[in-house]
TrEMBL record:
Protein name, per record: Glycerol-3-phosphate dehydrogenase [NAD(P)+]
Binding of NADPH, residues: W14, R34, K107, A139, R254, V278, E280
A Pfam family reported for this protein in Swiss-Prot or TrEMBL: NAD_Gly3P_dh_C
HAMAP family tied to this protein: NAD_Glyc3P_dehydrog
NCBIfam families the record matches: PRK00094.1-2, PRK00094.1-4
The species this protein was found in: Brevundimonas staleyi
SUPFAM superfamilies with a match to the protein in the record: 6-phosphogluconate dehydrogenase C-terminal domain-like, NAD(P)-binding Rossmann-fold domains
Binding annotation for sn-glycerol 3-phosphate: K107, G135, S137, K190, D243, S253, R254, N255
Active site: K190 (proton acceptor)
Length: 332
């Protein structure tokens, strides 16, 4: 099927950047924004001043506050913060066009239910063909057309291929996978690990500690991904290792910069004050910790980060606890 009109649910930085990706790929785009000021600024000045300032949006992109307006779309990208995915899809469900695929682009695990975004979709719009788009991709880079490669996971390989062809462009290269779980776990866990790396950086623990955190964090991500039924090879791809490397290496990441502030001595309240943008690692950390315990997977870095974010420990005690763990074989 040739896709002509894409709907994007959620006009944060990433939803807006993905609207541009779709427009550059030749699709007409309907971008749904919750905030009236976003609708106003995109309509009148062709810029999303609240979430992606400085980027002029393509004329193919129209903006609306109404989820119902996406009922005409033959392809939908869902990009709200993960903790709002269920409520957003519930509200959108009555309008969804039968058979239109939904590409989940948010990175997180639902608190309470401990569910992945594909599970949330299956419970809210069960008939919709699902795909996951995830990988190392800052909205600011993608919106400028800088080269970006991501994982596009879809159990139906034919549909995945069609979606990959549809979204690709000179600066945007999706790579195909069929493992939804592996693709989702990578994106959710790297956010928590990026906070840990930021803390290490903020505390001045050095590049060696940074590399150790990335490597041991990757082991945690792989353990959880495979325990949930994902494949290690998917987690080692763009959606897992690739995104971990990006997010843990740049203060441009909201998650890493939150960690940096905590490592430099700010409280969580100070570090989050006045922020409109989402740090998904902060939001998902309690669910990651609970899920790891539920499935019996050891994730000490994520556990320690969740404890710090919950106010149960201090940065110094967290570092001390991680460094005093019993020695063990690297591959365990
Ligand atoms: N920004 C990036 O570079 C980037 C890249 C890849 C993936 N992502 C992922 O995309 C998702 C969205 O992040 P973002 O960067 O676009 O957001 P953002 O931080 O730029 O903006 C916040 C978003 O939250 C929405 N929001 C606030 N309250 C809400 C509510 N009650 N219900 C529904 N939505 C609400 C706002 O409308 C806005 O879209 C996240 O899961 C993030 O991890 C972001
Ligand atoms: O700014 P962050 O930390 O939300 O990261 C954005 C993207 O997920 C990077 O791939």
């Amino acid at each position: 099927m040739a896709y002509r009109t894409a709907g994007v649910i959620g006009a944060g930085a990433w939803g807006t950047a993905l609207a541009l990706v779709c427009a550059r790929a030749g699709l007409d785009v309907i971008l749904q924004a919750r905030e009236p000021e976003v609708v106003e600024s995109v309509t009148n000045r062709r810029i999303n001043e609240a979430f992606l300032p400085g980027v002029v949006l393509d004329d193919r992109i129209s903006v609306t506050s109404e989820l119902g307006a996406l009922g005409v779309c033959d392809l939908v990208l869902a990009v709200p913060p993960a903790q709002y995915m269920r409520a957003t899809l519930d509200a959108y469900a009555p309008h969804h066009r039968q058979g239109a695929p939904i590409i989940l682009c948010s990175k997180g695990i639902e608190r309470g239910s401990l569910k992945l975004m594909t599970e949330v979709l299956a419970e809210t719009i069960p008939d919709a063909p699902a795909a996951v788009l995830s990988g190392p991709s800052f909205a600011a880079d993608v919106s400028k057309g800088l080269p970006t490669a991501v994982t596009l996971a879809c159990e139906d390989a034919g549909l995945g291929e069609a979606l990959m062809e549809t979204l690709s462009g000179p600066g945007f290269r999706p790579y195909l996978a069929t493992d939804l779980i592996g693709a989702e776990v990578g994106g959710a866990i790297k956010n928590v690990l990026a906070i840990a790396c930021g803390i290490s950086e903020g505390r001045g623990l050095g590049r060696s500690a940074h590399a150790a955190l990335i490597t041991r964090g990757f082991a945690e991500m792989t353990r959880l991904g495979t325990a949930l039924g994902g494949e290690a090879a998917t987690v080692a791809g763009l959606c897992g290792l690739g995104d971990l490397v990006l997010t843990c290496s740049s203060p441009q990441s909201r998650n890493m910069s939150l960690g940096l502030a905590l490592g430099q001595g700010q409280t969580i309240q100070q570090a989050l004050a006045g922020k409109r943008s989402v740090a998904e690692g902060y939001e998902s950390a309690p669910a990651v910790r609970e899920l790891a315990r539920k499935v019996g997977v050891e994730m000490p870095i994520c556990e320690a980060t969740a404890a710090l974010l919950a106010g149960e420990t201090t940065v110094d005690a967290m570092i001390e606890a991680l460094l005093s763990r019993p020695l063990k074989a690297e591959r365990e």
